[in-house]
Design goal:
Blueprint (H helix, E strand, L loop, with lengths): L1 H22 L4 H11 L3 H23 L4 H25 L17 H19 L8 H7 L2 H15 L7 H7 L18 E7 L4 H17 L5 E6 L4 H11 L5 E5 L1 H8 L5 E6 L2 E6 L6 H7 L1
Parallel strand pairs: 1-2, 2-3
Antiparallel strand pairs: 1-4, 4-5
Helix pairs in contact: 1-3, 1-5, 2-3, 2-9, 3-7, 4-5, 9-10
Length: 299
């Protein structure tokens, strides 16, 4: 029984730590989810995402070394319950979402799959909590003496492994020489003045993230700036509707373009976003450099 008990602690702890590590690359998905669902500004979402990952790493480690077993298990259970309600919210509000981001992009899971995982982990926690007493091995008691160090390292690690790029101006400037005015030619659109032009693929995960990022910024700032989307492919109306359904993207108009012409215009960069003023492209971005403050300057 002692061996089983210890293995269960390890399994739960490892799952928490793996979940945190997988969210690190790309961390932008977690940043986007936090901002999109809470309305927090972009800079705060970057900090909050890393703190959340650090919390998962620390909690997983404390479970593995069995620090204050019952208290740590209750914390783990509370976290799982909270995330389970969040997953239920996703299933109701975004029924078409195919990856909740709970295990990053390396191991995509639907909200339902992640909910079942959480319920399984909760079952293991309940199993441990019904045990009357715990006996912590001596070597784990020694590890617990350095708990403060491990906690500090755990919360710091995400900021070291995936540093925050506070200014995306350098990345944006690197795109500017490649701006092509021909991205405007031949487009059947109704937008004039200032608008955003996005070249997207309905099957590209970063394009989906860009769509949600745009809606996040737009809702925070009450923007009415129109967006025209050019989707890659032909005869893909059902795919486009699924894309719009999954992302919640609201566009003023969209068109499609065959793959060859699409790649020629964008140089194969997905997604490609352009700010257009009076029929002239003034800025080019991708998903990473596309940010709230810079868009405000062009409104």
């Amino acid at each position: 029984m002692k061996i089983i008990q210890y293995l269960v602690f390890v399994v739960i702890g490892v799952l928490f730590m793996v979940s945190g590590i997988l969210k690190l690359y790309p961390i932008e998905m977690l940043e986007l989810d936090l901002g999109y669902h809470t309305g927090m500004p972009e800079w705060l979402s970057m900090i909050a995402a890393r703190l959340l990952i650090g919390f998962e790493l620390v909690l997983g480690f404390l479970l593995m070394i069995r620090f204050q077993e019952r208290l740590t298990l209750k914390w783990a259970g509370a976290v799982l319950v909270f995330f389970s309600f969040y997953l239920i919210y996703l299933m109701i509000q975004f029924p078409g979402q195919d990856n909740c981001g709970c295990m990053g992009m390396i191991a995509p899971m639907s909200p339902l799959q992640s909910l079942l995982k959480n319920l399984g982990m909760l079952g293991l926690i309940v199993f441990l909590l019904v045990i009357k007493s715990f006996e912590t091995p001596v070597f784990l008691l020694r590890l617990q003496k350095g708990m403060i160090v491990f906690v500090v390292v755990g919360f710091t690690l995400p900021f070291v492994l995936n540093t925050i790029d506070w200014s995306k101006d350098d990345m944006r400037q690197s795109f500017q020489p490649s701006i092509q005015q021909n991205v405007l030619t031949g487009l059947k659109r109704k937008e004039t003045g200032t608008f955003v032009l996005a070249y997207l693929s309905p099957h590209c995960i970063y394009c989906k993230m860009l769509a949600r990022k745009w809606e996040w910024f737009k809702s925070r700032n009450q923007w009415e700036t129109p967006m025209h989307v050019v989707f890659m492919g032909q005869n893909i109306e059902s795919d486009i509707q699924e894309f719009l359904y999954q992302t919640g993207l609201s566009v003023s108009s969209y068109t499609t373009m065959n793959d060859v012409e699409f790649i020629q215009k964008t140089h194969g960069s997905l997604p490609s976003i352009y700010v257009v003023q009076n029929e002239f492209v003034v800025q080019k971005d991708n998903f990473i450099s596309f940010n709230e403050q810079n868009l405000r300057n062009w409104r």
